[in-house]
Write a structure and sequence with these properties.
The chain has 29 helices and 14 strands. It has about 675 residues and is α/β, with parallel strands linked by helices. Helix 5 (about 115-125) crosses helix 6. The longest helix is centred in the middle third of the chain and has 21 residues, at about 435-455. The termini are far apart.
């Protein structure tokens, strides 16, 4: 049987077949959303193994999430290649580093830091900076960005000139904190997640025997989501690869949405330069979405500025996308919950429905609205499935029962076992923790049913428990039958029959602090990712204002205008005729104010300011809360100089607030009314 006739190639489209049959030399797969990239690359691995072109034991498949790695392993098992290693970069690196540690160090393997906060706080204290919670988070993010960008402290200082630093910390202080953080890790013999990759890179460069052993073990590499690699991950990949060129990378520049974390599509776009012999295949046939969804996706793609790929649909019909404006956030959440309840009543499974939004703080309104209607939901990014108490209890009970294998099918055995700890075939009427427990146990029952259905032979309970252990190790959780609530970033790589994209307004999507053309373009790519999560139905909505605020002020996102009318939502404003400003003098020393910033604040920069301490304290607390709600650094909410000027001016109108330096139109729209309310509540006298 020749390679072209192999059954593994059946059912692949021409582009997927080109990926699967490619052998030898580097391959670049540009894969649009929903075009079957995982199918193409897993069939490529399996086909190469079947025709003897590659030994599957020498293949390392890399991706970025434990879920994606788990799905890849599952598909490879079903294609007859269970020995392929499919892992995340961190999982593969940690496994190798543990194995080689006795050859690079005399001591025991260091403890891994689960999070940086405590050590970063100690480093800040050591250099004389108060370790406030918000600042610790922002400093930790900056340390991670420097590490994945391969910047040591001196390199960071040289290149960080244009980067916004955490509030109240200048470049010199940041460098001192980074240095002290590194010293503390050494003193306490601990590694953070970036260190795992960095130390392994160093070991591969310094120890030829270790590099040779890795090169002997892994000879062929497949990297999914290549647009998301950081310089550190790319450096490690090149060291794994060595002088060989058996490399297949898969990615989509239009889905580059993690540049804030150090990811870059630069390596994907320059593959033809780094590997001149590379071939390119483009996957453009979208099998996921109905034609109306694909039409919107293509309208967004034309403006991403990243790739000319346009998706081709399969003529699958679906309802037109809906665009709806609501009076306020509460009305939007309640209306979406009502629509979802109607979908479920019409027969759609809750697990096939998602509500997506830009920031995690938007989730609460939908949790309340769905809960009021008795609709089950799952907040993606919450507690990990295998860390739940009821799941641990279920695994313990199943292990205790595994010694007495029964003759019943696997799913029947699992139902009987879990019934002993409270599972029942029908869902409880109660919501909250009772319902969540039942859903967790039902997910295990469903997983047992699927495992048995996929096998022609009885599946032993012990084998099912081993599969659960593997899933737990790689955090590959089963699907729970509830409506998914998720930020768009957390939704990457997932899909649903029905997607409700909420909060599509200026200041949310695009987010308010995205002010440069590059930042707006990334927000547009995020919008593209959100749209392409939908298989059949897509609704987009926004509100005119927050709950209880005047129903005005917000505008629909420019992206709505782009997909509806094929043009920007807001045309460029006509040029204004310059008008000479009247002379303005400092209210403290009466000197003529020459700069715009001085005129805005009403005084010279060097003149003392009369700050309302109560307002400033309230602003600091407010900024911390909003930073947590919006999942952004505090200094991107409002800078300290802006807050001090607000506390000095104590503005009582939007016009007056808009004259404060740093209060641009987007921030004024996003925060103006609540800032004025805060000032009225706390100003002295």
């Amino acid at each position: 049987m020749t390679g072209a006739e192999h059954p593994l190639l059946e059912g692949l489209d021409p582009e997927q077949r080109a990926v699967a049959t490619h052998t030898g030399g580097p391959l670049v797969v540009l894969a649009g959303a929903g075009t079957g990239k995982t199918r193409a690359i897993t069939h490529r691995i399996a086909h190469q193994a079947a025709i003897g072109a590659t030994d599957p034991r020498h293949v390392l498949a890399l991706t970025f999430t434990t879920k994606a790695a788990g799905e890849m392993r599952s598909r490879l098992r079903s294609l007859g290649t269970p020995t392929v290693q499919a892992r995340t970069f961190h999982s593969a690196a940690l496994r190798q580093l543990r194995f080689f540690w006795p050859r690079i160090s005399d001591g025991p393997f260091p403890e891994l830091l689960p999070q940086k906060a405590t050590l970063v706080g100690h480093a800040m204290q050591a250099v004389g900076i108060a370790p406030e919670r918000e600042t610790i988070r922002d400093v930790a993010a900056e340390i991670e960005h420097a590490a994945v960008s391969l910047l040591g402290v001196e390199d960071y200082v040289e290149r960080a000139g244009a980067r916004p630093l955490p509030d109240g910390i200048d470049l010199d202080a940041m460098a001192q904190i980074m240095q002290r953080y590194g010293d503390l890790k050494t003193e306490r013999r601990v590694l953070d997640f970036e260190d795992v990759l960095l130390v392994l890179v160093g070991a591969l460069g310094a120890h030829e025997d270790i590099a040779a052993q890795v090169h002997s073990q892994y000879r062929s590499f497949v990297v999914d989501e290549f647009q998301d690699v950081s310089p550190l991950q790319h450096d490690l990949l090149m060291r794994w690869l060595g002088r060989r060129e058996d490399l297949c990378v898969v990615g989509d520049p239009a889905q580059t949405i993690y540049t804030f974390a150090g990811a870059t599509d630069r390596f994907l776009r320059r593959m033809s330069v780094d590997f001149p012999s590379s071939q390119e295949v483009r996957l453009v046939r979208n099998y996921r979405s109905a034609e109306p969804v694909i039409g919107i996706a293509n309208a967004v793609l034309r403006r991403t500025g990243r790739t000319p790929i346009q998706l081709i649909g399969t003529q699958r019909s679906g309802p037109p996308a809906s665009f709806t404006e609501y009076a306020d956030d509460a009305a939007e959440a309640e209306a979406i919950a009502a629509r979802i309840a109607g979908e479920i009543e019409s027969g759609r499974r809750p697990a096939d429905i998602a509500v997506l939004f830009r920031t995690n703080s938007q989730s609460r309104a939908f949790e309340e609205a769905l809960g009021d209607r008795g609709v089950s939901y799952v907040v993606r990014g919450g507690e990990r499935f295998f860390a739940r108490r009821e799941v641990k209890e279920a695994l313990a009970v199943m292990r205790a029962s595994s010694h007495r294998e029964g003759s019943d099918p696997l799913d029947v055995q699992v139902k009987d076992i879990l019934s002993s700890i409270g599972w029942s075939p029908t869902a409880p009427q109660a919501q909250g923790a009772v319902r969540e427990r039942w859903e967790s146990l039902s997910a295990l029952v469903g997983l047992a049913h699927d495992s048995q259905a996929e096998s022609q032979l009885p599946v032993p309970l012990a084998a099912f428990i081993a599969d659960l252990d593997d899933r737990a190790e790689h955090q590959f959780a089963p699907t729970i039958d509830g409506v998914t609530l998720a930020s768009v970033h957390a939704a990457k790589g997932l899909e649903w029959e029905s997607v409700h994209l909420a909060g599509v307004s200026e200041g949310l999507l695009p987010i308010g602090y995205a002010e440069t053309a590059e930042a707006i373009d990334e927000e547009r790519r995020l919008f593209y990712v959100a749209v392409t999560r939908a298989r059949t139905a897509l609704s987009l909505s926004w509100s005119k204002g927050r709950r209880g605020s005047p129903a005005k002020g917000r505008r629909p996102s420019r992206f709505v205008g782009e997909v509806q009318a094929g043009r920007p939502a807001r045309p460029e404003a006509p040029a204004r005729t310059a008008v000479a400003a009247a002379p303005v003098r400092c209210r403290v020393c009466s000197s003529l104010l020459l700069t715009r910033a001085d005129r805005n604040r009403g005084r010279c920069a060097q003149c003392p300011a009369d700050v309302d301490g109560a307002v400033l304290e309230a602003l600091i607390h407010w900024r911390g809360d909003r930073s947590t709600q919006l999942n952004m650094p505090v200094f991107l909410v409002l800078s300290m100089p802006t807050m001090r000027e607000i506390a000095e001016r104590v503005p009582d109108s939007l016009d007056d607030l808009g004259r404060v330096s740093g209060m641009g139109p987007i921030k004024l729209e996003q925060f103006g009314h609540e800032l004025l309310a805060l000032i009225r509540a706390h100003r002295s006298g």
